[in-house]
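Sharing in case it's useful to others searching the archive later.

Someone asked me privately for the predicted structure of Response regulator, so I'm posting the question and my answer publicly. Question first, with the sequence:
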Amino acid sequence: MARILVVEDDEWYRALLVEMLRQDGHEVIEAGDGVQALAYLQSASADLMIIDMLMPNKDGVDTIMELQQLNLELPVVAISGGRRAVSAEFNLESARWLGVRAGLVKPFSRADLRGALAAAMA
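And my answer, the predicted structure tokens:
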């Protein structure tokens, strides 16, 4: 299975993602924002990153752009949510412009998550 870095500022949602991934046999590392994620990736590795697009300190777009500047090639699944689906879709479209192959609008199912992981790793 994969080592997955989950970057999500909402502790409840992050815990839910971590639990689903661990139940599927993945090793999971947690980060509360892009700053923590980049600090981890500068000293260790991951096979894939799941990142929320809207976070304090360093959001998904800035984090993905910095990964590219550091030449850290890492498959990414972008996630976004909120009260307005239009803004979530806009955030995911921004991620696609940065080369992200898979995106999910919160809330999503376990099957959707598995599909996004497969698409990102392909």
